[in-house]
Amino acid sequence: MNKIDGEILRILQIDGRRSYTDIGASVHLSANAVADRVRKMTMSGVIRSVQAVVDPAALGMTIEAQIDVKLRPTTSADAFEKAIRQLPQVMTATLLTGSFDYALRVACADRSDLAAVTEFIRNKAGAQETYSRISLREVRLGEVGPKVTSRAAAAPPRRP
To answer: Which domains are delineated in the chain?
Structure first.
């Protein structure tokens, strides 16, 4: 992967619907050359998918929260994941190291919906302990980009 591929990825992460013609104008390539590079990055697994980022609030899901979950010793990760797939409020589930086993991002209609999700996780999904935090704001600082190969380029700017 080179610098142009990295710029194409950056553009697609900001707006996955940008046309290859528009992207090509930004990186000084033809639309066909951009399409070829995107196809190669998709085939190699660099690009896993292109998806819509949905605003849960626009769908009436006004409370977003993170729920950290510690599983009961008798609950397997597979069983827990199967159980939480029944909850449309769960947006992501991340298996962790440390004191908790999972971090769930959920979007709920209101506080009682969040309470119901938490109770399901405790009573039916095999959680021993949960710790919930309501999200006030999310700031996207960018997506994962190509690896920086130069140490100098990777170093943060120095303060005076």
So the answer is: 3-51 (1.10.10.10), 56-134 (3.30.70.920)
